[in-house]
Amino acid sequence: MHFEILPQTCRIMKSLRSVLPFFVSAFILHMLPGSSVSPPPSPAASGSPTILIRSGWQTVNIGDIAHTSGLLTLLGQHIPDARLVLWPADIRGEVEPMLRRYFPRVEIVHGGLDEDDRPATSELRAVFDRTNLFICSSAPDIGVATRVFAAWKKHHAADLPDRPYGFYGITVDRETAFAQLAGKTFLSPLDREILNEAAFVYTRETASLDYLRREKIRTRILGFAPDAVFGVDQYDTTRADAWLHANRLEKGRYICVIARTRFAPYYKIRQRPPTENDLAREAYNARHVETDLGKIRAAIIRFVRETGLKVVLCPEMTFEVEVAKEEVYDKLPEDIRGNVVWKDSYWMPDEAAAVYRGAVALLSMECHSPIIAASAGVPSLYLPTETETNKGQMWPDIGLGDWLIYLDDPAVTGESLADKLLHIYKHPAIAAEKLGRAMDSVRAIQGKTLREILAPRQ
Question: Is 122 exposed, middle or buried (0-12, 13-18, 19+ CB in 10 A)?
């Protein structure tokens, strides 16, 4: 029997061949156990996405700077064909030149919202028009993005299903002592609206994830993705090596220590008169500073005397330069100060990362320097207090729970902190294997979640 294949039939068969891979991919994704990912887009919608990133919360904290470089790095690795547009909240000073140096292909758009919560500049409106996906980078709270996401929803009221938005590595803290002190004890109606209509909400620790589940948030994808700072991979070795050489520091022969007061004195940082709340926080700091930093000093003293290694006192936030000098360095015994180097100026995260990379370990009252160090393969002990959000939960979440040490615990002393540091120093292979397993887990989660991020477009 003979069949004649008509020209129009040939065209149909060619068209089917062109879309077949998309249907195959859709079937595979659909059949994966537990998969919540929708099928891939049609060929017409499958071009390189344009992704708008909201990040850059402040420049006085290298962790807030590193949220941006970390997420840009991860998106470049896992969605390499994407066109990335950064809409920063604040990248003044050295920050913007640093980002342009490491990410020359990333477009940076400036501008705010007008009083009607619409893009205030033609440049920003044009970016809103051509963007397929809007991501809020890791942050201490969803409040950094509720207004901009509301503006996005208004701008794309007619096509929001095709222009999704979401959070990547966010904390939502309404239950800790810090939340009580900050007066954030519930989700506002706008919070709920933004969360429920987001295409994805990845929290950076499971405490926030559990809270949102109990609050019955209905976002399509609700999951865990560690802080975007784990993606940091930028090292200013030139500046770091020069500083290390000038201070006679040898790689593998020092530890880094970051000390702070419980509340950051933002009125000093912003150079404004203190409010009544500022003064109350300063009084709170004063009640705890000797106990907190006395433990840090005791750990340094024992570590130096038993190892002969050096200690670098360095900042994560600008105000910590002064704290390190006045509350740690100046109060150390004279024989110990000879092995302690005070970093007398603030720095950018790429220089900090390069210095951390040469350290034996890092002891920190801040959260993000331990993440930067861990990404560089350096073991870190994180020492939160009750004035921190629940972000510290990410350490147990990735398998490093015993490197999370609550400084408020009466059982935690300078001696016990030194024990932890000395164990890392004396057993480097054990520490390296432990950290390696944790980072393997982090990278696996990063890969999975960043593949899922495109699913809402599908």
Answer: exposed
